[in-house]
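Entry type: protein chain
Record version: 2
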Amino acid sequence: MFNYIIRRLLLMIPTFFGTTIMVFTILQYVPGGPFERAVMQLKFASMMSGESASAGGKSISDSQTLTPEILEDLRMQYGLDKPVVIRYLIWLGIWPKEIKNRTVNIGETFRENIYSFKKDAFTSYTLQKWIKPVKNKTGEIIVTESGVGIDIKNADFEPTKDFQELPNVNFIKTWYHSTNWKIAEIKSDSEIRIIQKSYQGLFTGYLGYSNEKADDVGTLIKNRLHISLIFGLTSFILVYLICIPLGIMKAIKHGSKFDVISSSIVFIGYSIPGYALGTLLLVYFAGENFMDIFPLGGWRSENWNNLTFMGKVFDQIHHAILPILCYMVGSFATLTVLMKNSLMENLSQDYVRTAFAKGLSEKSVILFHAVRNSLIPIATNIGHVIGLFIVGSYVIEKLFGIDGIGMLSFTAIITRDYPIIMGFLVINTIVRLFGNLFSDIAYATIDPRIRFK
C-alpha cells in the first residue's frame, strides 16, 4: 500500500503541471486580460482627465497618446515581454521574477523602500537605503547602495533602535556594491534601466498579488478557506450519513410506497439546481417576504464576537442550514440511487443466498455481508465528491453572500483577476488529486480482494 501511495503521488505531478500549464496558457492569450484593461484605463484617463496618467514610471498627459515606448514599459510591467514558458516558470517560482524596474541616469541617486512598520495608528516608519549607479575606474557601470536607515529620526521607537536616520546622500562616504539591483539595459551613455529580481512563485509559497483586492492571493485564500471547508465538509458528511442508510432502506423495501415516494422526492430535488433551490429558499424562508425563519445570507451574524458559546453554535447552524441544503441537493439523488442499486445487485449474489442457507439473520446478512460490498461504488466516487464540496461553490456562496473561496473565485472570474484564478486552480487541483487517492485507499479498505502491489 505504501509503495502504491508513493507511485500515485509521483503520478500526480505531471497531472498537476498539465492542468496548470493549460489554464495558465489560456489565460495569457484570452482577450480582455489585465494588460488590455490597463491600456484602456490609461487611454480613458488621458482623454477624460485633466491630470496625467502614468505607466511604467512615465506620465501621460491628456494631450498625449500611448507611444510604443509606453506600451512596451506596460508590457514589461505585466511580464508580457517574456515568452509564455518563462512566465509560467516565474509563476512557479523557479525563474527569477522582475519585482522592481527603474530607468535612471548614471550618478543619479534614489531611495529604495525596504520595509514599512507602524509605531501606532497615526505614525509609521519606512526602512530605506540609497541606490546609485556609477562608473568605476575601468569605465564599467555598476550599481551601488548605501547602508540602511529609517526615513525620519525617532530614537524612542524600540524596533528601530539599531537604525539611525537615513543620512543625506551628500554625506555618505561609503558605498557598497548592490547585490539586489542589476543592470538590465544601457539605453544611452547616461541612462540605464536597472531591475531587481527575486524568486517569488508557487514553490516559494507565493501565489501572486491581486491588484483588484490589493493583497496577496495566498492571504486572500487563507482568510476564506476555513469558511468553505466548514460548509463543504459538513455537507459531505451529512450526504453520506443520510444517503447510505436511505439507499439501504430503499433496497430492502424496493417497490413499496416508501421506495416510490422517497424516489419521487429525491429525483425532484435532483432536477432542481442548487442555486435555483437557494433562490426559492431565500424567497420563502428568509427575509420579510413570507416566513422570516432564516437569515438572508452571510457567514455569521455581525454580533458574533459578543455571543456566548452556545449562542455562537446556534448562530452558525442558523446561517448554515439553507446553504448546506443547496450544497447537498446535487449529490443526494446520485449517492442514494447508487447505494440502492448496488445493494440490490449484491442481494442477488450467491454468497448472500449461502449466508441465508447457513441460518444467518437477515440483518446480519445485509449489514455485515451485502452492505460492505455495496459500498465499493460509493468509495470510487468519494474523491470527486470531496473535491466538489471542499473547494466551495461559486454560485451558492454568491447567492447567500458567503465570503468563502468560491465567492472569491467568482469575483475573480468576473473581474479577470488572473492571480486569484490561478491560486484557486492550485487549491482545486490538489484537493481533487488527493481526493482520488483517498478513493483508492477507501476502495482497498472496503474490499479485501483489492491489493495494491
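Comment: The CA atoms of residues 102 and 194 lie 6 Å apart.
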